[in-house]
Design goal:
With about 650 residues, the chain is an alpha/beta fold. Helices cover about 50% and strands about 15% of the residues. The strands form three sheets. Strands 3-4-2-5-10-1-11 form a seven-stranded parallel sheet, with helices on both faces.
Length: about 650
């Protein structure tokens, strides 16, 4: 055993060490990172011993290659799950090709995204026979997609650089599950998803994102066929996101969007088949009208709120609720009977009946262990139920069934302890390791915390904080993210500073996230005002991002129904939710936000936290102990001096 361990260590050093295979492949860009080698050893050991591993790897560790090489060398089929599709594509187009170049052989890899990323050949064929169903503007785009699909190997819409992000036409052409007839489809043998499953069956590494992984896991929980083939181990990159994503997929919801999409799909199928509408379609339309009105009455105000008086709501809306259920059930049964279980109407009918079952579960089912909520988004509404705790669900469906689960991120530990994440995720067994960042934070970064601002809960905080932000941006010459926990305070601060600042200002919500990020990278001295979606998963290297300003400590809003339910659950179990749940959750979020600044050994910049509670409250040391060892100041003149030395 000792000789085998030594051989494994020698092999990893020969790859990652000075003069090794990675340096030969990377050339001048190579930098030996001891932490990367240490992490690779820990991952290899976990895979060999078939045990779970929690491993925090500080920014700059090179964690992707540190888990990819042991995964490939293990000889096991392993799923790599990332936080986003962008990270999936980074693995496929950057990290895995680099690994292949260093090894001298390509590993067998399949990248699997959600179904709506892939074209459906049958729907492409259907529209070709019915061009009158397309507008003149759509017709030319359809022809380009059609020509692409004839040549494409993957059928992945990411290859279509001419297609807008929210294309209505793509919604009619993609392979989403709601319209898929699977093996009963005439195009099944040549289907892009069929080919994708075959590649996944043959692959050693299957690269997915967390949403797809948990969609697959919840299907298998219900004894339904999943998307992924059997696997032997899982690596979760950006594992700090798992509780939130798992909660979404172990829950249930129904929305006005789903209802209206059902009506559109039903009407489109009737037009494609050139058949009479039939009473079932009228019933679907009536159900959609009743259900939409019901959800909009439930979610009158913008935002997400707990549904506390479900019985009373049902009493007041009994008529609309019964019409929704009765019409959906009758429509589904009539459609099945009228078309003799042909593939497409059968799929549509099952979908109609499933909507009825979900509505009944949400409004009449046993809600024990879940929190019921409703949300208004623009002109749409959602009714949902989310598990208050996912720990037992993950233990039962993941950790006890898969012998090796590796969870990694730059932000897993709170004040050096993994207890918070272990408890939230139900990871009772397995080892843990913390790899420090490769960066010299004391030299590269300065942490500025003013001690003379009012408490963030006071009305004077926002205007005074805006003045500090203006001073910081003057010192940094723009080149900054200003991160907020509240859309309202983001907009108010932006309006206060818009006319005062001589820099290009970008505001979240003005454009899609990826376009805002591209504009920020391309615009000298730009300043981006943003909220939660820019706190993580964003990588801007170099001087273009030289300052990250955090408006307030990122405590989750206790008014959010899921957060409120989890706070109650901790307190009712005899714990102290503020210190055991809210503070650790905020610590990980702050670490993520600050992590946007230093992305390479050449980066320098200032981190600013305008929330003085970190210096005054008893929980402050937990935050400070969880952060890297930044140089710290409370003086704006030291910030100016730092940038003057840039």
């Amino acid at each position: 055993m000792a000789r085998a361990a030594a051989t494994k260590t020698d092999s990893l050093r020969a790859f990652f060490g000075p003069g090794g295979q990675l340096q030969a492949a990377q050339g001048e860009g190579f930098e030996f990172r001891p932490g990367q080698l240490e992490m690779a050893r820990a991952v290899a050991d976990a895979l060999e011993r078939r045990r779970h591993l929690l491993i925090e790897a500080g920014t700059g560790t090179g964690k992707t290659l540190a888990y990819l090489l042991p995964a490939v060398a293990s000889g096991r089929r392993i799923v790599i799950s990332t936080g986003t599709k962008n990270l999936q594509e980074q693995l496929i187009f950057k990290d895995i090709p680099l690994l292949a170049a260093a090894l001298g052989r390509p590993p067998r890899v399949a990248c699997v995204k959600g179904r709506n990323n892939y074209a459906c050949r049958q729907r492409l064929d259907d529209l070709e026979t019915q061009p009158a169903l397309l507008t003149i503007a759509e017709l030319e785009t359809y022809r380009r997609i059609r020509a692409w699909a004839r040549e494409s190997e993957l059928g992945d819409r990411a290859e279509l650089d001419f297609l807008p992000e929210n294309s209505p036409l793509w919604e009619r052409l993609n392979a989403r599950k709601e319209i898929c007839t699977a093996q009963k489809c005439p195009a099944f043998g040549d289907c892009f998803l069929t080919r994708l499953r075959q590649r996944a069956q043959e692959a050693d590494l299957i690269v997915v994102n967390h949403h797809l992984f948990f969609a697959d896991l919840t299907l298998k929980q219900r004894d339904l066929p999943g998307v992924l083939p059997p696997y032997e181990a899982v690596v979760f990159d950006e594992a700090h996101e798992l509780e939130e994503v798992a909660g979404q997929y172990f829950g249930v919801s129904i929305s006005t969007h789903q209802l209206q999409e059902l009506a559109r799909d039903a009407e489109a199928w009737v037009r494609l088949q050139v058949i009479a509408e039939g009473p079932w379609l009228t019933r679907v339309q009536h159900a959609v009208e009743s259900g939409t009105a019901l959800l909009l009455d439930l979610a009158e105000e913008p935002g997400r709120f707990e549904l506390k008086e479900r019985t009373r709501f049902l009493e007041d809306h009994q008529g609309a609720y019964r019409r929704l259920l009765d019409n959906l059930r009758a429509a589904g049964n009539e459609l099945l009977a009228a078309h003799d279980s042909a593939p497409e109407p059968e799929t549509l009918a099952r979908r109609i009946i499933d909507l009825a079952e979900r509505a009944e579960l949400l409004l009449e089912g046993d809600e024990t262990g879940s929190v019921l909520w409703h949300e208004r988004r623009g002109r749409g509404a959602i009714l949902g139920a989310t598990p208050i705790e996912v720990a037992d669900l993950l233990e039962e469906n993941l950790f006890s069934r898969c012998d090796t689960v590796i969870l990694t991120s730059a932000t897993l530990a709170v004040a050096g302890s993994f207890d918070y994440l272990r408890g939230r995720l139900g990871l009772r067994h397995g080892s843990e390791r913390s790899i420090p960042s490769a960066f010299d934070y004391e030299r590269q970064a300065l942490l500025y915390i003013p001690d003379d601002l009012p408490d963030p809960r006071e009305p004077e905080f926002v205007p005074q904080a805006a003045e500090i932000i203006a001073a910081l941006l003057a010192a940094s010459q723009g080149r900054a993210f200003v991160l907020f926990t509240s859309h309202e305070q983001m907009r108010e601060t932006y309006q206060r500073l818009e006319a005062k600042l001589p820099f290009p200002l970008l505001l979240q919500g003005e454009q899609p996230r990826h376009l805002l990020l591209e504009r920020f990278r391309a615009t000298p001295q730009a300043v981006l005002f943003a909220t939660s979606s820019f706190w993580q998963g964003v990588d801007v290297q170099g001087e273009q991002l030289s300052c990250v300003i955090v408006h307030k400590l990122p405590f989750a809003s206790p008014s959010d129904p899921v957060t409120a339910a989890r706070i109650r659950a901790v307190n009712e179990a005899g714990g102290q939710a503020f210190m055991e749940f809210q503070v650790p959750h905020a610590v990980l979020a702050l670490k993520q936000g600050f992590g946007r600044l230093i992305r390479s050994s050449r980066d320098r910049g200032v981190l600013a936290l305008l929330d003085g509670r970190i210096l005054r409250q008893r929980y402050g040391p937990i935050f400070l102990e969880s952060l890297p060892r930044y140089r710290r100041t409370g003086r704006i003149d030291e910030v100016r001096a730092f940038f003057a030395g840039d």
